[in-house]
Amino acid sequence: MSLPEVDVCIIGSGAGGAPMALELGRAGFKVVVLEKGRHYKPQDFVHDEILNSRRNFFMPLPWDEPHLMRQGAKGRYERSNSAWTANCVGGGTVHMSGYFYRLKPVDFRLSSTLGPVPGSTVADWPISYEELAPFYDKAEAEMGVSGEAVPHPFAEPRSGPYPLPPLDVHPLAGEIDKACTAMGWHSVPTARGIISKPYRGRAGCSYCALCGSYGCEMGAKSGTNASLIPAALATGKVELRPGCMARTVEVDKQGRAKSVIYLDANGVTQEQPAKVVVVSCTSVESARLLLNSTSSRFPRGLANGSGLVGRNLTFSSFGESQATFRVSKHAEKRPWLKDPAPFINRSLQDFYLMPDARFGFRKGGTLGFMWTHPNPIFAAVGLAGKGTSAVFGKALKDRMRDYRDSRILQFEVYAEFLSTPGTYVSVENEVKDKYGIPVAAITVERHPMDLAATRFLVERGEEVLMRLDPDEVKRGTVRGETTILQHGTCRFGNDASASVLDKHCRAHEVPNLYVVDGSFMPTGGSVPSTLTIAANSFRVAHHLVRTLKG
């Protein structure tokens, strides 16, 4: 059934889709937002690990909606829910931890800085940090970011302070500051997409400790479900349709996007005509949608005449280690161990860009310090181990007793994930999801520089942990990847033969089609990319409003 035409149809309501909806609605345009997931209310967000982390509250089940994952083109695909973010209004911003870093100027000119990198397709951005900076300011203000900008040698330029003061932190943050200072490094406060006090009708943080993997019942986390979508709906110009799965974007005889075919919440096929179509489903799912949108004009997928849709996929390189402090052993000399404050909020960026390649890389990354996640089932599974190292009975109980008597500090590494010809998204026509749509197939082939950088950063983080004199330091991994941080499958650039989108995130081949999730990013940076996606979406919305108004 074909519905009345609207000015803009946006697919997705997360960090990319929501800013577009808000700004277009404010400008008076008629907007429809299609979201495949549910529209959760604050009362739906409960502290239930089984519901949130082990069922399909956020992520679909791999037998319903699989992603196919393989290591290298010769690897075997396996069904997985990896590289899903969240299927709900607000997308991955609903259950994010809310670490809101900006990229640094070097991230916009990484190819020029590094020079040729054999085996990588790294490219410069067609815009500069200075062009995006005003929209970082806007995203921080509209969403609500708490932090303290302190001067340090690696700070990116800012026009002013954060909109909100920093969240309260645990006393251990001060110990990390001392340790870093003693080594000549710079521990800096981590900005958070969590409001530290009431802001624009939302309640401030209650310090419950369950941010990552959970929705916020207080509305203090600055997911788009709490910050931008309500404001967009309040314009009276934006209609939100949850439970609607986009199948294809259709084109007219001139090759312009004309409508979105989708399954509504009742499973009925609908067609939403629009003057402009904005895609923002995540880098993996947006590529999948475009590749499945074939026609006589675009037989290889919409806007894919260059063959680059789905190519240049990047995630974020990941590493971690943990330091364990026995409370009963150290409580007298370290009374702060009994302090229940949930946030450490400290970062280290001294190794974001190295002066030379003596360690096997130049682009490094960020270390973020935090308490380990308090999910008890996740912790118990880890304590039990697996394979030949698994324990049960008294040995497992002893480990659990030690765990209950411990505070565990960890750091996570966010490092560059260089794009390669061997890391990409395609679609697998022989495997379909519960909607009957061919699924995304993801091939990963890491660049060796990524692994060298991650290992180096993990080693530096362990030096900080050792300075704190813990009972134990345990390495997690130096070879991981964070697949919820996605970029690059519809790279933007000035050269239509080397990119899918222009500098305004408009498809080179389809003048009324925009893509505004992380797909546009030629490089992912060495920080979580959520804030950058939102800032860029505000930038693109500013351009689109002016374009539509003539």
Record the SSE blueprint.
Layout: E1 6-11, H1 17-26, E2 31-35, H2 49-53, E3 67-71, E4 78-80, H3 110-114, H4 129-143, H5 172-182, E5 187-189, H6 224-227, H7 229-234, E6 238-242, E7 245-251, E8 257-263, E9 269-279, H8 283-292, E10 314-326, H9 327-330, E11 346-348, E12 365-371, H10 376-384, H11 394-404, E13 406-415, E14 424-432, E15 438-444, H12 448-467, E16 472-487, E17 513-515, H13 530-549
Helix pairs in contact: 1-13, 4-13
Write up this protein:
- The chain is globular.
- The protein is built from 13 helices and 17 strands.
- The strands form three sheets. Strands 1, 2, 6, 7, 8, 9 and 17 form a seven-stranded mixed β-sheet that branches. A six-stranded antiparallel β-sheet has the order 5-11-12-13-10-16.
- 24% of the residues lie in helices and 22% in strands.
- The chain is α/β, with parallel strands linked by helices.
- Helix 1 runs parallel beside helix 13 and helix 4 crosses helix 13.
- The longest helix has 20 residues.
